[in-house]
Amino acid sequence: MGCTLTATEPRRVHSMKSEPVSSNAIHTTILEEVKQMKKPEKIKERTSSVLDNRIPLSSRQKFQIVKSWKGIERNIKTTGINMFLRLFEANDEIMQLFVFIGGYKTVTELRESESLVGHVTMVMHTIDEAITSLDDSEYVINMLQSIGKSHKTRLKDFDPNQFWKIEDPFLLAVKETLGDRYTSNMENIYNLTIRFILETLIEGFNLG
Which residues does the UniProt record annotate as the domain Globin (predicted)? Predict the structure, then answer.
């Protein structure tokens, strides 16, 4: 399903034929928007057995992924970098959206890019916020849809189907970080979760 970057020949990054979008500035703004969004206050008498069918997880599955995600949070930078390097390795057209790639000749060099680390932080913050907020369906759906809309208004000619290209790199990076803790049960839950996140981003883009 995936690849091991360190086991392959360093890959040359193609030169960009068109002027790239300044993604750091865009995602800095998006991250600030996420931080400013306030979760609704917890209702003390909320009935936990009532599920929102827009989120394809049971109460137990939500509990399990939040617990599992703590292992990712402790290694969130490395997980995010591995995710993006796999994404770039497989998708030239995605790489060309990121202005900071221009000065790096190989994937190995790109791993050391401070700009990549900054972008990874922004994206992983969004995923972290979504996973840890699954009990607040209105908040997490509104948050993800807002980010999807931002891609439509701020990224010219962005194809929302490109969101799907992060699915496999995300799952591979999570598997690598969790190791033996990435059981078949957790694999299924992470699959359901990342698909929910990406579908909601695309919904937001289409609503924008």
Answer: 56-206
